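User: I need a structural model of histidine kinase from Arenimonas composti TR7-09 = DSM 18010 for a docking pre-check later this week. Nothing fancy, just the predicted C-alpha cells so I can convert them on my end. Input:
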Amino acid sequence: MADVGAVKAHTGIRGRLWLLLGVLLSIALFASAAVFVERQRQAALAADARVAHTLVVLQRALEFDTALLRMELAHRGYLVAGDQTFIATRDGYDADAASQLARLRQLTSDNPEQQQRLDRIGELLEDRRARMRETTAAVAADGLDAGRRLLRTQGDGSILPLRAELEALRDDEHQLLRERNAAAAAGGTRLRWAAYIAPALGLLVLFIAGRALLGQLAAGERLRRDLLRANAMQQAMLDGAGYLIIGTDHAGIVSLFNRAASEALGYRPEEVIGKLPARTFHDPGELAERAAELGGDPFATVRSGDSGVRSDDREWTYVRRDGSRFPVQLSVAGLRDADGELLGFIGMAQDITTRKAGEREVRELNQQLQTTVQELESFSYSVSHDLRAPLRHIDGYARMLVEDIGDGLAPEPQRFLQAIGTASRRMGQLIDDLLALSRLGRKPLAKQPVDMAALAREAWGEIVTDGVPADALKLGDLPAVAGDPALLRQVWLNLLGNAAKYSRDRGEDRRVEVNARRVGDRVHFTVADNGVGFDMRYADKLFGVFQRLHAQDQFEGTGVGLAIVHRIVVRHGGKVWADAEPGAGARFHFELPEAEGR
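Assistant: Understood. Predicted C-alpha cells for histidine kinase:
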C-alpha cells in the first residue's frame, strides 16, 4: 500500500506538474498572442501615420507647383504688359515657392532620394530666378522687346525642367502611398487572424484561461477604441487633404468619400458611401471613350495589374451634383490582398481648374508674343523697303541739284542741299543700324571657337582706313572664346570704332588699348581709350537704343552701336558694362565664355 500510495502521490505530483506546465504553457501561448496583437495594432497605427505623412507631402508638392505656375504667369504677364506690379506679384509667388520647398525638405528629411531631387529642384528654381532677374534687367535696360527675347518657354532656364523634377517627386510619393496602403491592408489581415487565435488559445486553460480571456477581451475593447481613434484620425487627415479622395469596393461602389470630395461634388458622404458607384461623378462621354480604348472597362489598366500596384493617372472631367463640370488630375490605384484578389480602388483627384486656366493664359500670352514678333518683323520689312528707297531718292536728287545747278546757287541754298543730303544719309545709316539690331534677335548663333585677337586686328584694319593711325592700337593677349565670329566681329567694330572716334581730339597722342584676363571659365575683355570719357551718372543710358551722351555736331553716330554690342554679348551668355571719367577716357568691359579645350 505504501508503494501504491507512493505511486499515487508521485502520480499526483506529476499530474500537478503537468497541469502547472500546461497552465504555464497556456499562459505563455496567450501572452505570445497578446504581444502579437499589440504589435499588429502598433504597426497599424504606424502605417496610418505614414499614409498621413505621405498625403501631407503630396499636398505641399501641389502647393509648390501652384506657386511656380503663378510665379511664371506673373513673369510672362510682365513681359506682355510691361506693368511693374507683375514683378511684385511674381516675387511674392517666388517667396511662397521657396517656403513650400523648405517645408518639403523638412517633410522628406528621412528620404535621401527625395532630398537629392529637392536639391535639384532648388538649383532649377534658382536658375529660373536668375533668368527672370536677367530678363527684368534686360527690360530695364533695353525695353520689353529685349526681355521678351530672353524668355525661355522650354529647355534649360525655363520652368519645364523644374516642373518635370517636381512631377517625378510626386510620382515617387504616389508610389510610396500605394505601398503603404498595401502594407496597412496586410497588417489588418494579420490583426484579424490574431483576433481569431487569441480566443482559441484562451480555451486551452480553465479558470486561469477564462480570467485571461476576460483580460484579453478588455484589452480587445481598448484596442477597438484605439482603432476607432486611429480611424477618426485617419478620416480627419483625409478630410484635411487637398485632394478629392474616393475609395470603392471591387464592384466600384463608393466606400470612402472624404470632405474635399463632398464639398467639390455636392454630395454628403452618407448619400454616397455604399450606395452610388464612382462612375456617377465622371463625364459619361469620357468613360465611354476610355472604355472603347481598353475594351469595355475604363479602368482596365488598374484591374490588370499583376502585382496590384499598377495605377492609372490622367485628366478626367468630374460632374457635380448640379450638373456643372470641372477638370481633375485623377490617379487611380487598385487595392489587392496578399493573394492578388482585387479588393477595390482608391482614387486621388486634384481640381486643376486653376492650372488649366493658367495654362490657357500662358498659351494666349505666347500667342500675343508671337503676334508681336511678327508685327515687328513686318515693320522691319517695311523700313527696309518702304523707307530706304525715298531716302535714296532724296539724297540722289540733292546730289543732282548740287552737280547741275550748284554753281549758280547762292551759298545758303547750297548749304540747304548739303544738309538735306547729309540728313538723308544719316537717316539711312540709322535705318541700317535699327535693322541690324532687330535681326540680332532672330539670327541663330553659329557658335565655334573664335580667335578674338584676329577679329580685333581685322576690325581695327577697317577703322584705320578712316584716317585713324594704325599704331594708336595696343593689343594685348586675347584668349579664344566660344561664339559667333560674324556677330563678335561687329562687337569689335563698334567698340574700337567708338574708342577711335571719342579720342580723336588727342591727335597724335590718341591711344586705344585692348586687354583680357581669364575669370574662371570666362574671359574678361577691356577696351580702353584716352578720349573725352563721360559722366558715370548717365552710364545706365549707354546701352539703350538712341541713347547718346554727346551732341551730334560734336561726335557723329546714331546711338544704336552700343545697343547692338549689348545684345550680341547677352545672346552669347555674357555681360557688358563701362566706366569712365569726363576728359580722362572710357573703359568698356565685356565677358564671354572661354572656348573649350583652350
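Before docking, keep this in mind: The domain at 448-593 is CATH 3.30.565.10 (Heat Shock Protein 90).
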